[in-house]
Design brief:
Keywords: Glycosidase, Hydrolase
Number of strands: 23
Number of domains: 3
Largest sheet: 4 strands, antiparallel
Family: Belongs to the glycosyl hydrolase 43 family.
Helix content: under 10%
Strand content: 35-45%
Protein name: Arabinan endo-1,5-alpha-L-arabinosidase
Distance between the termini: 28 Å
Structural class: mainly beta
Radius of gyration: 21 Å
Strand order of the largest sheet: 8-9-10-11
Organism: Salibacterium salarium
Pfam family, one: Glyco_hydro_43
Mean pLDDT: 85
CATH architecture of the largest domain: 5 Propeller
Oligomer: single chain
Shape: globular
CATH superfamily of the largest domain: Glycosyl hydrolase domain, family 43
């Protein structure tokens, strides 16, 4: 990191950044991979907003593709990334097949770096509880598992995933664990972590673990009354205690989901996806953020507007990623 007043110049991918572009209190942050600059951003003292864009990694290998004209349907929806023992792993939503043979969470790995070569490993077997769950009649049972999230605790990798009847909140978040993510057969499933059904004000999908204040937590939610947060037990396999309500857009169609929380410099940043997914390039997905000095909230956007809209007041949220060409935010 370079601060205001220091003499420097940075050039990468045809871009130049120098001291004339910083004001007092600003920081220039550089991301290096294999000793080469991959990203550069100016972080302002007031907003911490990244105002200089870097470059995208050149991804190689089995990174996923969708080409109907060539009958290729190998997407990498909802990717979750982790590094374990020097190897990178990406987990993604399973390939949709049938109610009798639903697609399990798909796994890819790269033993070189984040750019690849990526290698497809295949899918983790769908656990028995998904096939035997109390699904609603006439709604269609799940044809694949969704929205993985992955973390590591004491050398064990935990994988959270969702099973749901699309368009309903008859849903559940499950978890599996392994000490060796390089082996698809090593995963041990622990059943459901949190469930929802008709009448609940939340939808138990899009679970994402986060460690804060000496405690592991799980944030989750989609539509209904938005995003929730609940503590995880020591085994990482069940939720316990109060369910906290973090975000509600307070629209009739409450299109907010896929929550993820990170901590930085004493603040917790809540990222969520808004609007329409799953409609190809007609999707209107975008990512918004707010922050709080407490993991349980309240969260506010850059302008100080609460993320939880109440009493007919719609919520805030600072958009940080929108659609660019055929890449949906």
């Amino acid at each position: 990191d370079y601060s205001y007043g220091e003499d420097f110049s940075v050039s990468f991918e045809g871009s130049y950044i120098g001291p004339d572009q910083l004001e007092e209190g600003d920081i220039l942050s550089l991301q290096l991979i294999d000793n080469e600059i991959e990203d550069a951003s100016i972080i302002t003292e007031e907003t911490e907003e990244k105002s200089v864009s870097g470059t995208k990694l050149n991804m190689t290998g089995d990174v996923g593709d969708f080409n109907p004209s060539e009958n290729i349907d190998d997407p990498t929806h909802d990717p979750a990334l982790i590094e374990h023992d020097g190897t990178y792993y990406v987990f993604s939503t399973g390939i949709s097949r049938s109610e009798e043979d639903p697609g399990g969470i798909y796994v890819r790995k790269s033993e070189e770096n984040l750019g690849g070569e990526w290698e497809s490993m295949g899918e983790i077997e769908v656990p028995d509880w998904v096939m035997n769950y109390d699904w609603l009649e006439n709604e269609g049972n799940p044809t694949h598992l969704w929205a993985p999230a992955v973390t590591e605790k004491d050398g064990t990798v935990y994988l959270y995933y969702a099973a749901s009847q699309f368009g309903t909140n008859q849903s559940a978040i499950g978890v599996a664990s392994t000490d060796d993510p390089s082996s698809l057969e090593s995963w041990e499933d622990h059943g459901t972590v949190v469930e929802s059904e008709e009448g609940d004000d939340y939808n138990a999908i899009d679970g994402s673990p986060v460690y804060a204040d000496g405690q592991w937590w799980l944030t989750f939610g989609s539509h209904w009354e938005g995003v929730k947060l609940q503590a995880l037990n020591d085994n990482m396999t069940e939720v316990e205690g109060e369910m906290h309500w973090l975000q509600d857009r307070n629209y009739e169609i409450n299109a907010v989901e896929a929550p993820n929380i990170i901590e930085r410099d004493g603040y917790y940043y809540l990222f969520t996806s808004w609007d329409t997914c799953c409609a190809g390039t007609d999707s209107t997905y975008k990512i918004a953020v707010g922050r709080s000095d407490s993991i349980t909230g309240p969260y506010e956007d850059r302008d100080g507007t609460p993320l939880k809209g109440e009493n007919d007041i719609q919520n805030g949220g600072t958009i940080i990623l929108d659609t660019e060409d055929n890449q949906i935010g």
